[in-house]
Design a protein that fits this description.
Layout: E1 21-22, E2 25-30, E3 33-39, H1 40-52, E4 57-65, E5 83-91, E6 96-104, E7 110-112, H2 122-132, E8 135-137
Parallel strand pairs: 3-6, 7-8
Antiparallel strand pairs: 1-2, 2-3, 4-5, 5-6
Length: 176
């Protein structure tokens, strides 16, 4: 921050410019890619607006567990939460990308599904559910996709106990 010219003998401190916004949410640049931060209440509305802007392809949906980094810097007014759902969108016509980082609280790990905007998100949302336990409200088939149905817990959570899975080998065929 720099000091401006004094007014009535007092220096006025300039405030930094607020971060740019996209559809009302703060935007930052991360290694040359546009990143929009939002909370889960604005998630579906933001993504619907981005689809209307021409982001016609959802490249992926993934989850992040920030258990050890709960106080990380996030642009205001977004509040950091333990979980984050990250969505990468592509506009094929303009060849532009945008990443959306939506905060999801640990106490109620639920966020809206994107299936009805981009049907190809069906499997990635199931993977996030299976590995992190984040539920996608309105998803047509939110069942495990990688782990057995009777598996307990979510293996990519930072507080998931590291264990061993016994490997079962088939008996080698006997020589004839």
């Amino acid at each position: 921050m720099t000091d401006a010219a004094p007014v009535d003998g007092e220096a006025i401190e300039e405030t930094p410019d607020p971060p740019p916004e996209l559809h009302g949410w703060p935007v930052v640049d991360s290694h040359g890619q546009t990143v929009v931060h939002c909370n889960r209440e604005g998630y579906l509305e933001l993504l619907s607006a981005l689809k209307a802007d021409g982001y016609d392809m959802c490249a992926d949906v993934c989850g992040v567990d920030y258990l050890a980094h709960l106080s990380r810097a996030i642009p205001t007014p977004v509040t950091p939460e333990r979980f984050e759902v990250v969505v990468n969108l592509v506009s094929i016509a303009t060849r532009q990308r945008v990443r959306v980082r939506a905060q999801v609280p640990e106490s109620d790990a639920v966020i809206a599904t994107l299936f009805y905007l981009w049907p190809g998100t069906e499997a990635p949302e199931r993977e996030v559910f299976d590995m992190f336990g984040i539920r996608f409200e309105g998803h047509p088939d939110l069942t495990r996709i990688l782990m057995p149905e009777d598996w307990e817990g979510y293996p990519l959570r930072k507080d998931y106990a590291v264990g061993r899975i016994p490997v079962q080998f088939k008996e080698a065929p006997s020589p004839r």
